[in-house]
Amino acid sequence: MIKIIVDSTQNLPDDYLKKHDIRVAPIAIQFGNDTYLENLEIDRETFYRKIDEMGIIPTTSQPTPGVFADYYRELSKDGHQILVIVITSKHSGTHDSAILAKSMVPEADVEVFDSLSITLGTGWMVKEAVDAIEAGKSRDEIVARLTEIRDRSFLVFTPATLKYLQMSGRVGALKGAIGALINLKPIVYLNDGILEAGESIRTRGKAVDRLVVYMKEKLGVSDPVNLAILHAAIPDEGKELAERLKGEFNLNEIMVHDLVASLAVHGGPGILGIFGYRV
User: Fold this and answer.
1) What is the band of 168 on the pLDDT scale with cuts at 50, 70, 90?
2) What is the distance between the alpha carbons of residues 277 and 215, in angstroms, rounded to a whole number?
């Protein structure tokens, strides 16, 4: 049987991961000298509270190769093929850790797939892989399907400010400085696995409008699509945007989830975004 391993950035609910026996390699979140494993030793509520109390932006680090190697040993011992689906290699060393772990467990039959995406972009690929396994597809067929999704999916979001992205180095420093200086609402795109700051817009409402227009430009409104709404500690805005999209797209399925702490750390509370692809 094919078993899936992911990192903790994929943003799928814990009950879904448990139901499908998916192993999770946690990202480490570091506040000063204290390190916490995401979803095991720190939750979102504690994460935001510590930012407020300490007045600092924590750092993150990828899972160690040893974490992946332990999963490889466990699953290969039971005769399973392994498919690892991870956050974009262009913003994280998680992919490298998963690859290095293969040399530590040469007996394991492992395929590592670089989603070139983040949060529910990766999460949707995990869901597609689960469905394909249940349909009896081979691992090669699943990887081919994930590659199709990766090549024709889009992700766009707007943070409340570029301050966090600028401080974490996830977007160009100059654009970040300009956006922070004049307090505009930036639009950030994921292009080939890399976050790029695009235009800045004067109001939050118009920034959200731009997210919707961008997805319409990329996906159209007639073909069936899978969409995901990601937000950081703003559930009402997430639900409101989801309801809006239901009336503007030919939806096959939509997910709405609060952004995992290891990604919210780079954009701060107030992030709102959309991921989507044609079914």
Assistant:
1) low
2) 9
